[in-house]
Design goal:
The chain has no helices and 29 strands. It has 434 residues and is mainly beta.
């Protein structure tokens, strides 16, 4: 049986090379298959490493045919760069009883510069032909021998960078800004299953976006303020490929309205699928819906350090979530509309295990109010901890606060230098929180 021809693709952040040593981050993004001659679907395994570190298996039994892609979204780091040696092994599974993994090839390259590089794997050409593409980015001297950085949320184009989702309240258009750090590098209007732009307005509202079905692609969560229905749009980049109404534990559609509101989504229980965070404006209760795709499989009230339900209402509002302290668990970001204080709740599932006021560069509490508003949080600089996204309703400026846990270390205005067009955007456009 003739074996497939395959291409694996990975990417490195583009930053000019420096003469001095630093640490390096290698960001692998996807694998593309050039030729699959199996009867049925080809199944792939890809394993890579940097330096002399232990190889990491990125995926196994990933299905893809000719000209199809397997998403990766994994990052490895190494101390002291340049150089860095990148090694990858690709295998294809010969289906059938007693089938085994067969090697497509193993190869290494020595990388001395940042930017894009490739590895060709075709030592066993009759088993396939693989090209691994990746990009390396300097990250300073962290001294970490290996770090697997989780892919940021809201990475719609799977390039390893967090993107921004906008909605136009007047035209009902939804648009994605593809980002590299705080720079916009492209944009796309959300289109429906037929490829045409899709326009949806009240009573439907976008309330969050995340990967709900565990396929490595960001989905969009909508809520109907009239009926209480919640609906998931399963996405492939900026295209809608399917939709489903959120159902309860009994399999029936779950209709929930005021005083309950959806205030975010993320993977709170560590099962690889996004959950839904609700807040009750009357009682101050916050509640997690643990999800399996569009189905609710469990729920829990958020409790404090003492295990007792914690009830918080206005002027405090939930404005974001993400892993702010690098423990791979989702935390919650609050803002006080009266004082301008922002506060982090460090979480372990539905339980608060600590909290901290957000501090400025000088170490003092940072108090920020209108016209600035927190419109989301994500890991924009790929350092493994969430950052804060602000928007100025008066000037249209968007600004990223790059964080180290609760402390602001630097800030950057969102620009469009690599994309062209304006970067100052206000009403009727609104940034959608994830």
């Amino acid at each position: 049986m003739r074996k497939p021809h395959l291409t694996a693709l990975a990417v490195l952040g583009v930053i000019a090379a420096q003469p001095s040593l630093a640490d390096v981050r290698v960001n692998f993004t996807k694998m593309t298959v050039n030729d699959c001659n199996e009867i049925g679907t080809c199944d792939w395994k890809l394993t890579c490493s940097v330096g002399n570190q232990q190889a990491i298996e990125f995926f196994s039994m990933a299905e893809a045919n000719t000209n199809e892609e397997v998403r990766i979204g994994r990052v490895l780091t190494q101390r002291e760069f340049p150089p860095v040696t990148v090694t990858c092994t690709a295998q294809e599974h010969d289906g059938g009883i007693g089938a085994e993994w067969e090697d497509v090839g193993t190869s290494s390259i020595i990388v001395n510069t940042t930017g894009g590089h490739t590895i060709q794997l075709n030592q066993h050409r009759d088993e396939g032909d693989v090209t691994v593409h990746f990009v390396a980015e300097r990250i300073g001297s962290t001294g970490q021998p290996i770090v697997v950085v989780p892919r940021p949320g809201n990475d719609f184009n799977n390039d390893g960078s967090a993107d921004i989702l906008w909605h136009n309240a007047a035209t009902a258009e939804s648009q994605i800004w593809f980002m590299h750090g705080s720079s916009r590098i492209g944009r796309a209007t959300v289109v429906g299953e037929n490829g045409a732009a899709i326009f949806v307005g009240p009573p439907w509202n976008i309330v969050s976006s995340n990967d709900f079905n565990g396929d490595g692609k960001v989905d969009v969560l909508w809520h109907n303020d009239s009926t209480g229905e919640t609906q998931l749009w399963f996405m492939d980049g900026h295209q809608l490929i399917g939709r489903a109404t959120v159902v309860g534990e009994d399999g029936a559609a779950a209709f929930v309205g005021p005083p309950w509101n959806i205030v975010g989504s993320n993977d709170f229980n560590g099962d690889g699928k996004a959950d839904v965070l609700w807040h009750n404006d009357s009682t101050g209760e916050s509640q997690l819906w643990f999800m399996n795709g569009h189905r609710l499989i469990g729920r829990a009230t958020v409790v404090g350090e003492d295990g007792v339900p914690i009830l918080v209402g206005a002027p405090w509002v939930i404005v974001g979530n993400g892993d702010f302290n690098g423990d791979r668990k989702t935390d919650t970001l609050w803002h006080n509309d009266a004082t301008g204080e922002a506060q982090l709740w460090f979480m372990d599932g539905h339980r608060v295990i600590g909290r901290a006021t957000v501090l400025g560069e000088n170490g003092g509490a940072a108090f920020v109010g209108p016209p600035w508003n927190i419109v989301g949080s994500n890991d924009f600089d790929r350092d493994g901890v969430a950052d804060i996204l602000w928007h100025n309703g008066a000037t249209g400026e968007s600004q990223v606060w790059f964080m180290k846990t609760a402390r602001l270390v630097r800030r950057s205005t969102v620009d469009a230098n690599l994309d062209g067009g304006g970067h100052l955007v206000g009403p009727p456009w609104i940034i959608m929180r994830r």
